[in-house]
Amino acid sequence: MATASPLSYSSFRTYEECPLRWKFLYVDRLPETPRGYFTFGRVVHSVLEELVRPLLIAGGRRLPSGDAQRTLDEFHPGGPAPSGGVPMSAEELLALYDRSWLSDGYTSPEEEARYRALGRELLLRYHGRLLRAPPQPVAVEEHLEARWDGIPIHGYIDRIDRGADGGLEIIDYKTSRELSREDAQASDQLSIYQVLVESNYTEPVAGLTLYHLRSLTPHRAPPRPREALRRLHDRVGTAVDGIRAEAFEPAPGRQCARCDFQARCPEFRSVPATDGARLAEAVDRFRRLRQQERDLEQELRRTADELHRAAEQFGVHRIPGAGAVALRRREETWQYPPERVRPVLEAEGLADRAPHLAPDEIRRLLRDATIPPEARRRLAETGARRVTWYWELEES
């Protein structure tokens, strides 16, 4: 059984997309082919980290003991937050960008040149915005760890700002072409970052932001409600359970087109040439048999319907044949629609005795003599009986 180390958002997303690719990356440690757009994003992020770092102000970080670290604000109630330093000049920014540049993964010198020019443009524009409206960051590129109801998680957060109301805003830079507020509202990454910040800072999380660098647009969303975090926790827990159980089956999908491990994946691996002809014949035979199976199922339904019509016409439940007797059997089931049965259960104080609203739970209540007859009558009225007829064969 595999042990699950702290899970990052990237690791969680990889396992959800394809457990086998997760194994290749995190267990087998297989390298992936560098891609230019990933390299570009890493370089821009590293430059922004150095650009914003001089502006850092004191934050309220929780100590490992659980005690809260005192901040300067506590010594000056109601006073302004302490200001940070001065960011680098535009010339220093571009010099840092040139020193940080990496050429990994670009498909051609022309593509690299386009990305490099794009980076200079968006960094200069961001620098101008920063000088006009300096933020109040309490952390940049902060690595945080936490146990989320028993699940170890971690992440590197691009920036955490202190808002005007004293709350914290989580900011994640994006260099992608398109981005919207809906992306921020649906981002699992921001949700996990919220959990990490809430576990490590005394101030509350006041907002979540995906910052679109190409358009200098902060796409903001409110903090996730507890129910949304609970649903995500269930998904993360499912991933952790799969990792511990070494459940690493492939999950084919659109992501396969950009996967570097197709040659190792059973979904794409070819059969040996020496067995190709034999297995191709088996596939064709399987296809023919499957079609025959569908044809037989249709013929079986038509014949059963013919026998049902005869049984109803002549009022019989036994129809003899040359080698067997067809016996008509009856199956009765009860259905209790949730929208009808739930209000009755709640009104009668019985909801905890049928938590799943399953038919067998309701039937047990109907047979329970300790429940008042009127309550049982009301429950019974929510049900609908379904009768199904089917045929059995008795050999002659």
Key words describing this protein structure:
396 residues, Lambda Exonuclease, Chain A, five-stranded mixed beta sheet, three-stranded antiparallel beta sheet, 13 helices, 18% strand, flat
Verbal overview:
This protein is an alpha+beta fold and about 400 residues long. It folds into three domains: about 10-260, Lambda Exonuclease, Chain A (Alpha-Beta Complex); about 275-315; about 315-395, no CATH class. The chain has helices spanning about 10-15, 20-25, 35-50, 70-75, 90-100, 110-130, 180-185, 190-200, 225-245, 275-315, 340-345, 360-365, 375-380, and strands at about 135-150, 150-160, 170-175, 205-210, 215-220, 320, 325-335, 385-395. The strands form two sheets. Strands 1-2-3-4-5 form a five-stranded mixed sheet, with helices on both faces. A three-stranded antiparallel sheet has the order 6-7-8, covered by helices on one side. Helix 5 runs antiparallel to helix 6 (about 110-130). Mean pLDDT is about 90; it is low at about 70-80.
Q: In short, what is this structure?
A:
With 396 residues, this protein is of the alpha+beta class.
Helix/strand-derived class?
alpha+beta
Q: Cα-atom Rg, whole angstroms?
A: 32 Å
Order of helices and strands: HHHHHHEEEHHEEHHEEHHHE
- Are there runs of 5+ residues with pLDDT below 50, and where? 70-82
Helix content: 40-55%
Number of domains: 3
Number of helices: 13
User: In which order are the strands of the major sheet placed?
Assistant: 1-2-3-4-5
User: What is the residue-mean pLDDT, rounded to a whole number?
Assistant: 91
Distance between the termini: 55 Å
Sum up the overall morphology in one term.
flat
- Number of E-state strands: 8
Largest sheet: 5 strands, mixed
